[in-house]
Design brief:
Layout: H1 4-17, H2 21-43, H3 46-62, H4 73-104, H5 111-131, H6 135-146, H7 151-158, H8 162-183, H9 190-197
Length: 200
């Protein structure tokens, strides 16, 4: 038969299922420290453990009607903690693997990683192309194509006429386009490149 402590839990859990915030707070006060200790043992990062603890009790509140009165609440919490920690570690592992693949340039990569690598390569090529432009063309390209300024705004900054800005920009876009095309690389994202190819 349930102990006095378990009987107290049963009363609190019934109130919790009925929507009592006071019961929720009392259960939080009783179990949060040991669940936090468990999370810190599993995920190692104290700040992440604190955040996961909040996630745990948010789940408890949101799914309070599903809490079983037949099972130990402590065991129920530990089970959820385990699932939360495993999900966290899986996510961390995926992020670490992705970062490692990008750093090493490995060929054994997922589609998502390939897209990330291509985007990084595109940005590197673009930076290189822009750096090779003469100063005025580079400034016109940066102001209009990267910062999104109008020809008139760029003209005021560069202290030249809008028509001259346009001429610099046409030549700059052509040079950048040629540099990217000559690389022979598969470039992404396409929508970004369209902006750079445009001379309007």
């Amino acid at each position: 038969m349930a102990t006095a402590s378990n009987n107290k839990d049963l009363q609190l859990l019934q109130k919790l299922k009925d929507g009592s915030q006071l019961a929720f707070e009392e259960l939080y006060g009783k179990y949060s420290k040991q669940m936090l200790w468990k999370l810190r043992q599993m995920v190692k990062d104290p700040d992440d453990a604190d955040e996961l603890l909040q996630d745990l009790f948010v789940k408890i509140w949101e799914k309070r009607e599903q809490v079983s009165l037949e099972l130990s609440f402590e065991a129920y919490l530990y089970r959820i903690v385990q699932h939360i920690a495993i999900d966290y570690l899986r996510k961390l592992s995926r992020q670490a693997k992705l970062y490692e693949q990008v750093q090493l340039g490995t060929t054994e990569i997922t589609d998502d990683t390939m897209e990330l690598l291509q985007a990084k390569e595109t940005q590197n090529l673009l930076d290189e192309a822009v750096s090779l432009l003469p100063e005025q063309r580079r400034l016109a390209f940066t102001l209009c194509k990267i910062e999104g300024k109008s020809h008139k705004e760029a003209a005021e900054i560069m202290k030249i006429s809008p028509n001259t800005v346009h001429n610099h920009l046409v030549k700059a876009v052509g040079a950048v386009r040629d540099h990217l095309e000559k690389s022979g690389k598969e470039l992404v994202p396409l929508a970004l490149l369209v902006v750079f190819y445009s001379s309007n």
